[in-house]
């Protein structure tokens, strides 16, 4: 009787935690389930080292743009122009490096500045003129798609300098003696990353406990830490048995860590969520809502430019159709990852998981030979389902 009385509150606490965090953990469980499904259906092809490397390279630009799109969505806006901006910046990069022989470093910085200028132009209309972001960025999508065609004169332009190509197709240099097909430097980085993630999670939990904030039950925390460390180590091992860690994966990891820190540990991060939750209340509390909205679009422009450079480097050419449909995958990644269409809700980890869900689905369906027509249908239904869940949670 006594045991039952003592254990009941603990069971209720676990049940309450699962219910309150079902959205976050549900997406992660969905990713695992989708990966297992395609791993079985493709007879083990999905998790082969070569395919995993291709999966990273194919979805790197989606993850990069999803980080910026998350902040835009959290503030209660949307950006439909990211695909066109990425394609336009790729065209500018080709014009600079291929036609005018500009050094790749200078061209890289110019392209990021172009992305920031585009974001500033669109953000200005949205933040200070209060024009709906849907309209502004829809216009931007058409404008920069047309400009990309004009810059390239309707033709593909390439190839890029070999050094620039390494942005997307290069791998980190091997600093330790290779052990057969295993790249130990990549494996060491993966081990350090796994330990760092577990340590950071433990420190964050301890900090929240010290401030009296309700935290996840210890059993959940321990299980999550073990699964996370194992997943990172296993993924790194598979990648390390091919050619090691791709350069773009390192760039993605740094950006994910940076944006995770900004959104969770800085004043500006908390202000972004406050603006998305209630812009009027945030303004009355002293937050400069217009300036914050403006900078989220500038940030989106820079990340769209970086994604455009990564995509152009991967193709080794700039094409008029580059970036076509990117906005669908990027926006879907954020909504599938738990961002709310109403603003104020969303996490960096969720956006990354959402991007990986979209990437695994694209890759798995391609391996199975499913046509692009049905792939679009399935992705559209998944996006609709994610938004329906969001609406249901809002009404509840």
Automatic annotation (TrEMBL):
It holds the Pfam family BPD_transp_2. InterPro entries: ABC_transp_permease. Keywords: Cell inner membrane, Cell membrane, Membrane, Sugar transport, Transmembrane, Transmembrane helix, Transport. Part of the binding-protein-dependent transport system for D-xylose. Probably responsible for the translocation of the substrate across the membrane. One of its GO terms (cellular component) is plasma membrane. The chain crosses the membrane at residues 22-40, 52-73, 80-100, 106-127, 134-152, 181-200, 221-239, 245-262, 292-312, 324-345, 352-371. This is Xylose transport system permease protein XylH. The keyword Transmembrane applies.
């Amino acid at each position: 009787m006594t045991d039952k009385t003592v254990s009941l509150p603990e069971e209720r606490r676990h049940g309450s935690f699962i219910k309150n965090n079902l959205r976050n953990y549900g997406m992660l469980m969905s990713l695992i389930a989708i990966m297992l499904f395609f791993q079985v259906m493709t007879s083990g092809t999905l998790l082969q080292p070569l395919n995993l490397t291709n999966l990273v390279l194919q979805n790197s630009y989606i993850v990069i743009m999803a980080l910026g799109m998350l902040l835009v969505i959290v503030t209660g806006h949307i950006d439909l122009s990211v695909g066109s901006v990425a394609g336009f910046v790729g065209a500018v990069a080709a014009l600079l490096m291929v036609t005018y022989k500009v050094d790749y470093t200078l061209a890289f910085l110019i392209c990021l500045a172009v992305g920031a200028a585009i974001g500033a132009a669109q953000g200005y209309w949205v933040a200070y003129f209060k024009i709906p972001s849907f309209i502004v960025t829809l216009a931007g999508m058409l404008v920069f798609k047309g400009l990309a065609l004009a810059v390239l004169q309707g033709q593909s332009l390439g190839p890029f300098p070999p050094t620039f190509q390494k942005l997307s197709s290069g791998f980190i240099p091997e600093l330790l003696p290779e052990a057969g097909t295993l790249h130990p430097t990549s494996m060491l980085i993966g081990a350090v990353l796994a330990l760092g993630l577990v340590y950071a999670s433990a420190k964050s939990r301890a900090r929240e406990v010290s401030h009296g904030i309700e935290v996840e039950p210890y059993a959940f925390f321990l299980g999550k830490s073990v699964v996370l460390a194992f997943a990172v180590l296993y993924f790194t091992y598979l990648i390390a048995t091919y050619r090691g860690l791709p350069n773009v994966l390192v760039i993605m990891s740094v950006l994910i860590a940076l944006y995770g820190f900004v959104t969770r540990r800085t004043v500006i991060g908390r202000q972004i969520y406050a603006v998305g939750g209630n812009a009027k209340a945030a303004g009355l509390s002293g937050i400069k809502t217009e300036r914050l909205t403006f900078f989220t679009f500038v940030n989106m422009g820079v990340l769209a430019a970086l994604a455009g450079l990564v995509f152009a480097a991967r193709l080794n050419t700039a094409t008029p159709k580059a970036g076509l449909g990117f906005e669908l995958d990027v926006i879907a990644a954020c909504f599938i990852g738990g961002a709310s269409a109403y603003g104020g809700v969303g996490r960096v980890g969720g956006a990354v998981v959402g991007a990986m869900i979209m990437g695994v689905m694209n890759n798995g369906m391609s391996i199975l030979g499913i046509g692009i027509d049905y792939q679009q249908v399935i992705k559209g239904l998944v996006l609709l389902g994610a938004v329906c869940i969001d609406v249901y949670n809002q009404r509840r």
